[in-house]
Amino acid sequence: MSSTSVNSANTSKDKDSKEKDKDKESGADGDNFDQFDDDEPELHYGATASGRKRIFSKELRCMMFGFGDDQNPYTESVDLLEDLVIEYITDMTHTAMETGRTGRVQVEDIVFLVRKDQRKFTRVKDLLTMNEELKKARKAFDEVKYAGVS
């Protein structure tokens, strides 16, 4: 065996060992699964253990305080209330999808579903009226804004 063949053999062994070291660092060899502890789920701010993000927590805390609860209510209470709100919205949405045009939710379907509850019906009508007034005001503002430009 010549010295060049020995050097090339050593060089290929070095390359193989470097590739194995890279594989070990990246965890590709399969022996590195104990690196992270997955016993407890990682909770992000505004998330639950089930992974669902809490989207109404801040508003619910303010509402609870407004209705006489402590300024900082228990997280469990807020989570429970949010679960109830999400469940109500989901049920209403599913029912609305089945009511009018199947597979679509329209404003009229929601109005139809709350028509027997006078408080909800009045609130929905007020919000729809306010929405229309805001649209008209925005349109008038944009017309004045663009009329002054030219």
Quick summary:
This protein has 150 residues and is mainly alpha-helical. It has 5 helices and no strands.
Oligomerization status of the protein chains: single chain
| SSE arrangement, N to C | HHHHH
Report the major sheet: none
Categorize the overall geometry.
Answer: extended
The low-confidence runs, each spanning 5 or more residues with pLDDT under 50, are 2-9, 26-30, 32-45
Share in β-strands: under 5%
Number of helices: 5
Distance separating the two termini: 89 Å
Structural class: mainly alpha
- Count of β-strands: 0
Structure commentary:
There is one protein chain. The chain is mostly helical and 150 residues long. It has five helices and no strands. It has helices at residues 3-26, 57-66, 75-99, 107-113, 118-149. Helix 2 crosses helix 3 (75-99). The longest helix has 32 residues, at 118-149.
